[in-house]
């Protein structure tokens, strides 16, 4: 068995040491939760009668308390294509639970917004804080003391992190994440990008653009590009919180149904009254968090997880930062090229061997912790196999090697030697930059700044021809405290057009870009943010800005004395429409992006 890579070992040890006091408090929390907290034995007769009053044929079993009752927390809605399949899951789960003598109830529903619908719209300002809302909703669902295990039904960007943050406060419960899978492949991604850029240039109209987008996003299931939603699914695999290989099996297939059934059966087997107890709070430990970061780097995963992973970790009493991400990125080779980092989508990735190949290769190279507690049988080795149906029975089999090396490679012949997520720091603060889809010739951009406070102003300047030059586009007052830290993916086509015209172009922002960050260099999550005095507020139009993923620099090339003497501009007024004003409390109390940009975790830690 290969020894653990020294960098992975060093970073893990540092996280363990840094987190020791908080992790100890957290483990004490989950021990108390199991022994004296939320369980049916603590309920009065009136409490319990309320809990099973409408449970039909399951009422008698729930009443006795002799079998596991599973709480289903669902993010179902039928506007979000990835979550539409969940509509019928509760009934299937209840049937599967009865097969092993258990019961299941829908404990609660949580919101699930679609960033694809809200991208570039006012609703995007609610996006990041929807994660914290989902965490609160999950906690409410599991607070009823009716459940000995939990099944979390969620896939997309903020939903999986939110479900985990909430469920980890009930970390004594064994818990399994249940995905629904990606939609079948539609219009080729390269063609979709071509039409978007033509539209940005005014060369095609809205009808042509809508036809292209409809051919891309065409049915039930997760969007097929490798953005935050599919990065979520990858992480749940390398953390051992799915049934092995469940991430990328299409909805509505027999195999998908059997994986869901297997998850229910497995949850019943890992309860606290048996000999294989696997509580969520023990599964999500320092090693599992490191595995999640390793997986992100190995697959070119979403930059949004530079925010979400620290937040998930904090909910389990673990502290990670962007230095940890950067050091792991330097040690982990890039094994996958999935759009926007390549031409194939997640269906092509899965067909090439998918997560089975990634996990096995990383384990064999000593880059993943094998000895983590997973929801499956042994350790992470189980996740190096792919699920199949043989004679209608669910089995797992080895995948000897990648079936398509244009999409997926082994650790001995990676696409690049590192994971492609860089930490930049300098007189503008700290930020991250994903370079796995960026031409290495563009890893360093030095150009005059064009400073904006709103992404729509960027697009107006583009259409007016004001950005036809080498330029570092700076969009500030986009952090969590300013306006909820929206994604600025709406800028991608315009910036891509400028780059294709031969200009040196980069984006610098204290906002987010997207899990679909692509070919344009983007220095994002700049922290501290402009609101409250972050140094990006000192920038002026025309200042030369250097963004360099090679040296890890993000700096304004302004004399130090002049730089320090500059005053901060007035912040734009807070947004007030589409419900954004309801999140004022979250904005005012949010943490730094590097800590997870979470108002609820920041508040929680003042109490515990």
What are the main properties of this structure?
alpha/beta; Glucose Oxidase, domain 1; 4-stranded parallel sheet; 14 strands; DiOHA_6PGluconate_deHydtase_CS; 4Fe-4S; Phosphogluconate dehydratase; ILV_EDD_C
Question: What report would you give on this structure?
Answer:
The structure is a single chain. The protein has 608 residues and is an alpha/beta fold. The protein has two domains: 6-184 and 219-398, no CATH class; 421-572, IlvD/EDD C-terminal domain-like (Glucose Oxidase, domain 1). 39% of the residues lie in helices and 13% in strands. It has 23 helices and 14 strands. It has helices at residues 6-36, 45-52, 59-64, 89-99, 115-118, 127-142, 159-168, 189-200, 206-216, 228-238, 254-269, 280-283, 286-299, 305-315, 322-331, 346-351, 354-364, 455-463, 480-483, 492-500, 560-565, 584-589, 599-607, and strands at 69-74, 103-109, 149-153, 175-177, 385-390, 393-398, 421-426, 429-434, 444-452, 471-475, 505-509, 522-527, 544-548, 553-556. The strands form three sheets. It has an eight-stranded mixed β-sheet with strand order 7-8-12-11-10-9-13-14. Strands 2-1-3-4 form a four-stranded parallel β-sheet, with helices on both faces. A two-stranded antiparallel sheet has the order 5-6. Helix 4 crosses helix 11 (254-269) and helix 6 packs parallel to helix 7. It is globular and about 70 Å long. 56% of the residues are buried.
